[in-house]
Amino acid sequence: MTFVPAVVYSMFWVRDEPSRLPGDDLAAQEMIKVRTAERVADCRAAMESRITPGRFPLGAELTVLDLYVSVVSRWTPHRKRFHEVAPRMGELMRRVDALPELTAFWAERFPLVGRYGS
User: Fold this and answer.
1) C-alpha to C-alpha distances, 112 to 4, 31, 44, 79, nearest whole angstrom
2) Which of 8, 10, 15, 18 has the smallest CB count inside 10 Å?
3) E strand spans, 69-118
4) What is the pLDDT of residue 76?
5) pLDDT tens digits for range 68-106
6) Are 79 and 117 in contact (CB under 8 A)?
7) Cα–Cα distance between 101 and 49 in angstroms, integer?
8) Alpha carbon of 17 to those of 23, 62, 94: distances in Å?
9) Measured between alpha carbons, how far is residue 43 from residues 72, 86, 98, 99 in Å?
């Protein structure tokens, strides 16, 4: 639970406002976007390498971690890259996406269709 907010989520603080670090330097801002996307991909691959999934990443039962990873996986660089570097985790995220009790939540807050690919 600490890896995602400490290592992954922190990259989005930079990605969302790349001018926070280099100021008005547009080339540096673009480099920050590229490098943070690669770092997020590296983190996803690291998560993938450390799980022995069951139905969900930590086993048979849904956990808060599953929900958290599913939400974060919807942010840039989105799901396509997630599936490339962490295909087993990507499959698990599809299971979380498909839970009937979350359908309305995903549609309202974090839709995938037309925005991110699944």
Assistant:
1) 20, 26, 18, 9
2) 10
3) none
4) 67
5) 888 888 876 678 888 899 998 888 888 998 999 998 999
6) yes
7) 29
8) 10, 33, 29
9) 12, 9, 24, 25
